[in-house]
Amino acid sequence: MIGIIGGTHILEIDVLHHVREEVIKTPYGIAEVDLGLIDGIEVVLIQRHGKKQNKPPHTINHPANFYAFKKLGVKYIVGMGSVGCLKEHIKLPTLIVPDDYIDFFSSTTIFNDKLVHITPGFSEKVRRALIVAGKGIPMIENGIYFQTRGPRLETKAEIRVIKNWADCVGMTAASEATVAKELGLEYAVVCTMDNYAHGIKDVTIDYEEIRRKAKENAELCLNVVGKAVKVIWDEYIDKKY
Ligand code: HPA
């Protein structure tokens, strides 16, 4: 089985079939998952904001979501997300597959009562699969993801600082990468750059506008995620016939 985690749109992958819902119990709480098939390959999908889309970023139960993947036997997880662009010269829309992240503000971990310090990072294997899957689509193959706590957007002053350190800004992928690594799972993310972050261009940004763009751009991303699942299946999964 291969895992997919994303926002509102993940169930719209056009090659996804036979979806059924399940609730998975974990030591961290429950996770709501969908089980389906992409080209005959079993996939587990999680909508990170919940089935009712009512969990803002700082309330998402990342440990429960990723423990559920592990419990179901998933090792490779493809994430998709929406980010703001921190670089004025990048033309939008484009996808980005970040290769590192900065996360000073979240304290997400599964290790609250055990002294463990993992070395964080995205899975290079899942990143490779996403890059292969994205051939022919506008995609930036490297970059730094800066995670803010949310749910509010950033101030102009905050963006003036972080634009010197990172390429895109979002609210979830760094926490997901940390928890995935703590659980021994392989995770990377493909993001749609849906807006210029606050103050990068001389336009006001507004969440409804970002959502509209994210919806428009999701199709590009879903296409890549569907293909990446096939690449992971073909290249990384040990098939016992
Ligand atoms: N900031 C933080 N998260 C985001 C943004 C942004 O500008 N756009 C999409 N997700």
Task: Please summarize what this structure is.
The protein is an alpha/beta fold.
Could you characterize what this model shows?
The protein has 241 residues and is an alpha/beta fold. It has a single domain, classed as Rossmann fold. The chain is built from five helices and eleven strands; from the N terminus they run ββββαβββαββαβαβα. The longest helix is centred in the last third of the chain and has 29 residues, at 207-235. The protein is globular and about 55 Å long. Hypoxanthine binds at residues 82-84, 148, 153-154, 169-171, 194-195, 197, 210. Hypoxanthine (HPA) is lined by residues 82-84, 148, 153-154, 169-171, 194-195, 197, 210.
Q: Provide the residue-averaged pLDDT.
A: 94
Number of β-strand runs? 11
Along the chain, the helix and strand elements come as EEEEHEEEHEEHEHEH
What is the CATH C-level name? Alpha Beta
Gyration radius, rounded: 17 Å
End-to-end separation: 15 Å
The CATH topology assignment is Rossmann fold
Q: Count of DSSP helices? A: 5
Specify the helix fraction band.
Answer: 25-40%
Question: What features would you highlight for this structure?
Answer:
alpha/beta; Rossmann fold; 11 strands; 27% helix; binds hypoxanthine
Topology (SSEs and partners):
Elements: E1 2-6, E2 16-26, E3 29-38, E4 41-47, H1 62-71, E5 76-85, E6 94-96, E7 100-102, H2 124-133, E8 139-140, E9 144-147, H3 156-162, E10 168-170, H4 173-182, E11 186-196, H5 207-235
Parallel strand pairs: 1-4, 1-5, 5-11, 6-8, 7-9, 9-10
Antiparallel strand pairs: 2-3, 3-4, 5-10, 6-11
Helix pairs in contact: 1-4, 2-5
Residues 82-84, 148, 153-154, 169-171, 194-195, 197, 210 line the site of hypoxanthine.
